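Section 3.1: Structural characterization of target chains.
Under the original work plan, the team committed to producing a structural model for every single-chain target entering the pipeline before any wet-lab resources were allocated. The record below documents one such target. The sequence was received from the expression subgroup and is listed exactly as submitted; it comprises 85 residues.
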Amino acid sequence: MLMRLTYLWRHSSKLMQTLYITILNPKATRLLEDLADLQLIAIEPANDEFRKLLDKLRSQNATLTEEEIAREVEIVRAERYASNG
């Protein structure tokens, strides 16, 4: 399970930091949920767009060159920037 975890950190100029965490033990999920209940952290579901793209590319059973991968990444970035305005 991949989870995006954002927490506030009041040290020097950093106010917030975002971490991507892979949960290895289900007990850790409960601990994180408890911290969220105490409003010490905020938990957001991970964005699966990139994972969907990888699955799509892998399902094609084709070996992609670095240039092809870079082109796909640029297309996704352009779409994302266009939708965010």
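The chain has a mean pLDDT of 76.
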